[in-house]
């Protein structure tokens, strides 16, 4: 059996039927007026737009973030439902009797009422202030500063929307490193040597007279010398000159974002 202490854990938990089929998220919990124990819950199944469907909690079990209710998902589909924005947080005897008939429960109690936890899922999301106060009957009731009819506080809560800006990473582009070959004309000056003919004459002296008279006195003859020269020889070799890689760096810039937010304002009539 579920208890009042477990109500905070019930809100926004997920309801499942005994066979493990998901029914929906629990939004409100209603108490039995006689026992103050959780009796019904409203579940947003997604089948009726913004409306919430009632499921019984008698015999339900809380298993972590799951609440296993004692009815099948098919039964919940056709069960009575309410518009949470149009509800005053309580059930009439007629509504209770209709729920008991639909789910074939035992005889209905005198009525049910909502508890503080019944509105946690909606009111906390709106930032409304809530507090507990002890009533004369000894039971714990709720007072809520919402300015709604049927509440004990006549103050009105003013809310506003705020922008929550964050960043997310997207791919902005890609960079590729590619190597290709180009041909250039290169000129380089290199020194070369060559031999050329030079006629050398020397007078007849005592030192060379014998060589000069060694041949015939008058004759024809030829003498030949080989000339040499250097020519440039070009050879090519591939040598590494540098290494290139792609790197990434992060830069931080400031961008201005904007949006429209709604704010509540207070106006008075008859003052």
From TrEMBL:
<feature type="compositionally biased region" description="Basic and acidic residues">
    <location>
        <begin position="139"/>
        <end position="159"/>
    </location>
</feature>
<feature type="region of interest" description="Disordered">
    <location>
        <begin position="208"/>
        <end position="230"/>
    </location>
</feature>
<feature type="region of interest" description="Disordered">
    <location>
        <begin position="121"/>
        <end position="159"/>
    </location>
</feature>
<protein>
    <submittedName>
        <fullName>PRC and DUF2382 domain-containing protein</fullName>
    </submittedName>
</protein>
<dbReference type="InterPro" id="IPR027275">
    <property type="entry name" value="PRC-brl_dom"/>
</dbReference>
<feature type="domain" description="DUF2382">
    <location>
        <begin position="156"/>
        <end position="267"/>
    </location>
</feature>
<dbReference type="InterPro" id="IPR019060">
    <property type="entry name" value="DUF2382"/>
</dbReference>
<feature type="compositionally biased region" description="Basic and acidic residues">
    <location>
        <begin position="220"/>
        <end position="230"/>
    </location>
</feature>
<dbReference type="Pfam" id="PF09557">
    <property type="entry name" value="DUF2382"/>
</dbReference>
<dbReference type="InterPro" id="IPR052967">
    <property type="entry name" value="Stress_Response_Assoc"/>
</dbReference>
<dbReference type="Pfam" id="PF05239">
    <property type="entry name" value="PRC"/>
</dbReference>
<feature type="domain" description="PRC-barrel">
    <location>
        <begin position="6"/>
        <end position="75"/>
    </location>
</feature>
<dbReference type="InterPro" id="IPR014747">
    <property type="entry name" value="Bac_photo_RC_H_C"/>
</dbReference>
<dbReference type="InterPro" id="IPR011033">
    <property type="entry name" value="PRC_barrel-like_sf"/>
</dbReference>
């Amino acid at each position: 059996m579920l208890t009042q202490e477990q109500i905070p854990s019930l809100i926004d938990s997920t309801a499942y039927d005994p066979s493990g089929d998901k029914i929906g998220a629990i939004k409100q919990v209603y108490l039995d007026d006689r026992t103050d124990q959780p009796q019904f819950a409203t579940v947003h199944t997604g089948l009726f737009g913004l409306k919430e469907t009632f499921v019984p909690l008698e015999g339900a079990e809380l298993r972590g973030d799951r609440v296993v209710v004692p009815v099948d998902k098919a039964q919940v589909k056709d069960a009575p439902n309410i518009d949470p924005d149009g509800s005053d947080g309580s059930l009439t005897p007629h509504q209770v009797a209709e729920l008991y008939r639909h789910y074939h429960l035992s005889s209905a109690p005198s009525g049910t009422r909502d508890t503080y936890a019944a509105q946690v899922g909606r009111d906390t999301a709106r930032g409304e202030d809530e507090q507990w106060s002890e009533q004369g009957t000894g039971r714990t009731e709720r007072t809520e500063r919402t300015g709604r009819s049927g509440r004990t506080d006549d103050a009105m809560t003013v809310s506003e929307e705020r922008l929550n800006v964050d960043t997310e990473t997207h791919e902005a582009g890609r960079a590729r490193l590619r190597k290709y070959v180009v041909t250039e004309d290169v000129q380089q000056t290199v020194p070369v040597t060559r031999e050329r003919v030079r006629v050398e004459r020397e007078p007849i002296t005592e030192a060379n007279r014998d060589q000069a008279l060694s041949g015939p006195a008058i004759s024809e003859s030829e003498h030949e010398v080989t000339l040499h020269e250097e020519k440039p020889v070009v050879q090519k070799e591939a040598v590494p000159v540098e290494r290139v890689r792609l790197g990434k760096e992060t830069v931080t810039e400031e961008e201005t974002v904007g949006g429209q937010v709604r704010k509540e304002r207070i106006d008075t009539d008859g003052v």
